[in-house]
Amino acid sequence: MKRLDITTSSPEETRAFGAALARLLQPGAVILLSGELGTGKTTLTQGLAQGLSVHADVNSPTFVIAHEFKGRLPLYHLDFYRFTEDGNLDILGFAEYFWGEGVTVAEWPERVTGLPPEHLSVHITQQGDNQRAFSCAAHGTRYEELLDTLKEELGDAA
Ligand SMILES: Nc1ncnc2c1ncn2[C@@H]1O[C@H](COP(=O)(O)OP(=O)(O)O)[C@@H](O)[C@H]1O
Ligand SMILES: [Mg+2]
Q1: Whose CA is nearest to atom 11 of ligand 1?
Q2: Which of 58, 41, 61, 52 has its CA nearest to residue 132?
Q3: Is 94 within a domain?
Q4: Domain assignment present for 2
Q5: How many angstroms does the Cα of residue 35 sit away from the middle of ligand 1?
Q6: pLDDT digits (tens, 9 = 90+) for 31-64
Q7: Could you tell me if the CB of 8 is within 6 A of ligand 1?
Q8: What is the distance between the alpha carbons of residues 147 and 141, in angstroms, rounded to a whole number?
Q9: Closest-lying ligand to the alpha carbon of 61?
Q10: Domain containing 89: what range?
Q11: Looking at residue 121, which CATH number applies to its domain?
């Protein structure tokens, strides 16, 4: 499996990483973000939004599970934090997000079943007050190519 590991030292750096990643995304891309509360899933999503030219504030959906934004591609920001039991996405009607032209970013993907097998997973761990490690793994050839290109763009950072 193809991987990319990168560390950031500030929320701004995390957003810049997200923006660089977003500029390479194609319609229908799916990104699954895992990691403890406060590690930076939403902050990374803000960067993804910037890179997709979304001109709206992205924050943690508190009562809403899905937020849609208009950008270069539509951005669907899903947060399954409130799913304490396994939720099946087909039943819940979320599957429609993954068929469209948009980019789907999901926080707490481990709390639901039915997410697309082809996706980019990003696992975040906190290493210090402001340091975060991002471990990206490609699931599917399209995401392997994406990581190859991203590695070239990030150069020494990755
Ligand atoms: N390098 C970093 N990357 C991302 N967030 C950081 C970083 N350093 C500090 N932070 C802070 O950590 C918090 C991350 O919160 P958030 O993105 O909402 O996390 P999550 O969505 O994973 O719960 C924010 O308060 C952010 O300012
Ligand atoms: Mg969040």
Answers
A1: 11
A2: 41
A3: yes
A4: no
A5: 11
A6: 999 999 999 999 999 999 999 999 999 987 666 7
A7: yes
A8: 10
A9: 2
A10: 26-130+139-157
A11: 3.40.50.300
